[in-house]
Amino acid sequence: MKTLVCTLPGQFEYKEIPAPTVEKDHALIKIKRIGICGTDLHAYEGTQPFFNYPRILGHELSGELVDFDNAPGFSKGESVSVIPYFSCGTCIACRRGKPNCCTDIKVFGVHIDGG
C-alpha cells in the first residue's frame, strides 16, 4: 500500500508498506477524504510538541468501512468518519468517564500513524 510519510520536518516521502489487517476491536477504513489542519502543518514545520518522525499524518478523515472486529451497529460498506483519540480505558481518567484526559492517550496521526 502506498503511503505519504512525513519523515522529517519539511520532508515527505512516498513509501510502500504492507496493507493493514483487522485487529481485535479495530476497523479497516478505505480512506475517501482527509482534512489538513494546524496539527499537520505544525508537524510538517517541526513545531508540533510530542511528535516523533517518521509519521503518517492525518487524523481528520472519512471513508468506507471495509472490515471490522466488534463494531455493533455498523455495516460493511457504510460511510464513516473517525474519532482520532485512543484512550487506554484503565487509567483513573478513563475509569471516571473522561477518556479525553487519559494519561496514555494516543492521537491518530500524531502519536501513532494516521490516515
What does this molecule look like?
The protein contains two helices and seven strands. It has 115 residues and is mainly β. It has one domain: Medium-chain alcohol dehydrogenases, catalytic domain (Quinone Oxidoreductase, Chain A, domain 1, Alpha-Beta Complex). The two termini are 12 Å apart.
List strands and helices in order, with pairings.
Layout: E1 2-8, E2 11-16, E3 27-35, H1 38-45, E4 60-68, E5 79-81, E6 85-86, H2 92-95, E7 106-107
Antiparallel strand pairs: 1-2, 3-4, 4-5, 6-7
Domain Alcohol dehydrogenase-like N-terminal: 24-114
InterPro entries: ADH-like_N, GroES-like_sf, Zn_alcohol_dh
Protein name: Alcohol dehydrogenase catalytic domain-containing protein
Number of strands: 7
The proportion of residues in beta strands is 25-35%
Any idea what the shape is? Answer: globular
Indicate the structural class.
Answer: mainly beta
What are the secondary-structure elements, in order, as H or E? EEEHEEEHE
Could you name the ranges where pLDDT drops below 50 across 5 or more consecutive residues?
Answer: none
Contiguous helical run count: 2
Largest sheet: 3 strands, antiparallel
Summarize the structure.
This is Alcohol dehydrogenase catalytic domain-containing protein. This protein has 2 helices and 7 strands. The protein is mainly β and 115 residues long.
